[in-house]
Specification:
Elements: H1 16-28, H2 38-50, E1 60-67, H3 83-93, H4 97-105, E2 108-115, E3 127-129, H5 147-166, E4 171-177, H6 181-193, H7 197-200, H8 209-226, H9 232-239, H10 242-256, E5 261-263, H11 266-278, E6 286-288, H12 296-303, H13 320-338, H14 342-345
Parallel strand pairs: 1-2, 1-4, 2-3, 5-6
Helix pairs in contact: 1-2, 2-13, 4-13, 5-9, 5-10, 6-8, 6-9, 6-11, 10-11, 11-12
The structure holds nicotinate mononucleotide and 5,6-dimethylbenzimidazole.
Length: 351
């Protein structure tokens, strides 16, 4: 019963009538048709997802999921593992990039510790400790998670999405924090896309080229051990991470509650890829914020047929790239909602 494949959260279909009305409205606004480019499509898609004529992303719900990775013992990151827990404290005290961005956007920021090696500090304000385990096992040698742990982590994410829905969130952003998680994400993406690790493994927080080659060999060993071609949530259990599984659960959970999702960088996109492989109807609910500098992101975006909004060379995680793209989505909504029509403004339309 606790096999990950039993996870059957289903996203609903977007509203076709709201989509059609939004398309008609865009075509009647005082601009040549299509001249606002992808901002037009963005507003139309939001109308269909929010089943409204007046789309809005004023209420943004951000959940950052943190977890540690057993594969760190293989020397695959430029930073030590304790940074994961230290950054949780930084999120709590408002000093992290995502803290500043959330504050700027007036977004809620939910920090969830899904499992660190460093014992949780229960005094930290605003941090939820929903530890599934003290980090994952080393995926190069054994499954990162048991099936039960993967399901528990999916549930942690789904619960965060439920909180976003209770707070009437109009857009969900998931962020990740986990030293070593670019190794897990690359391994997962290789298994799901049948790719060579040398094409998907990158520097993460800052490995040099020798470090990247070593990391690719670690991923290769993991793939040999766990094999490919299994169902997506089993691949997630053996090669993923606690925060990555929580992100998969959160993304599915948000869409199933009719909250559109703005996907961040490499790690969140891999969590989204797992979710789309599990529930293809989820794809409709995803906007892609940016192209991360982590080289494997490009391949994952292509597999999801995704055109990100921004390309700023960011590679931080935390949901930061998604937060940076929110103002663009807000502008797309304002244009859709507030521009005059040809008729109202007395402007001649094309003959
Ligand atoms: O989101 C991205 O595209 C991204 C790319 C590179 C690194 N990161 C962040 O850096 C950490 C993982 O890097 P590493 O080198 O320890 O695997 C983790 O906390 C991620 O949030 C994030
Ligand atoms: C300092 C630091 C902050 C981060 N935020 C997300 N991943 C990170 C990795 C490091 C090393």
């Amino acid at each position: 019963m606790n096999a990950p494949s039993a996870w059957t959260v289903k996203p609903p279909a977007p509203d076709p009538a709201a989509r059609e009305r939004a398309r008609e409205r865009q075509n009647g606004l005082t601009k040549p048709r299509g001249s606002l480019g992808r901002l037009e499509q963005l507003a139309i898609t939001l109308c269909a997802l929010q089943a409204t004529d007046r789309p809005s992303v004023e209420r943004v719900a951000i959940s950052v999921f943190a977890g540690d990775h057993g594969v760190c013992t293989e020397g695959i990151s430029a930073f030590p593992q304790e940074v994961t827990a230290q950054m949780i404290a930084n999120f709590a005290s408002g000093g992290a990039a995502i803290s500043v961005l959330a504050n700027h956007l007036g977004a809620s920021l939910d920090v969830v510790n899904v499992g660190t090696v460093t014992p949780p500090d229960h005094q930290l304000p605003g941090v939820r400790h929903e530890m599934v385990s003290a980090g994952t096992a080393n995926l190069a040698r054994q499954p990162a998670m048991t099936d039960d742990q993967a399901v528990a982590a999916l549930r942690v994410g789904d619960t965060a999405a439920a909180r976003a829905a209770e707070n009437h969130g109009q857009l969900f952003i998931g962020g990740d924090m986990g030293i070593g998680n670019t190794t897990a994400a690359a391994a997962l993406a290789c298994a799901l896309l049948d790719e060579d690790p040398r094409n998907l493994v990158g520097p993460g927080t800052g490995l040099d080229s020798e470090g990247v080659s070593h990391k690719a060999r670690v991923v290769e060993r993991a793939l040999e051990r766990h094999g490919t071609g299994r169902e997506p949530l089993s691949v997630l259990a053996s090669l993923g991470g606690l925060e990555i599984a929580a992100l998969t659960g959160a993304i599915l959970g948000a869409a199933s509650r009719r909250i559109p999702v703005l996907v961040d960088g490499f790690i969140v996109s891999v969590a989204a890829l797992v979710a789309v492989r599990q529930q293809p109807a989820l794809r409709d609910w995803l906007f892609f914020a940016h192209r991360s500098a982590e080289p494997g992101h490009q391949r994952v975006l292509a597999a999801l047929d995704a055109q990100p909004l921004l390309d700023l060379g960011m590679r931080l995680g935390e949901g930061s790239g998604a937060a940076v793209a929110v103002p663009l989505m807000r502008l797309a909504c304002d244009l859709h909602n507030d521009m005059a029509s040809f008729e109202d403004a007395g402007v001649s339309n094309r003959s």
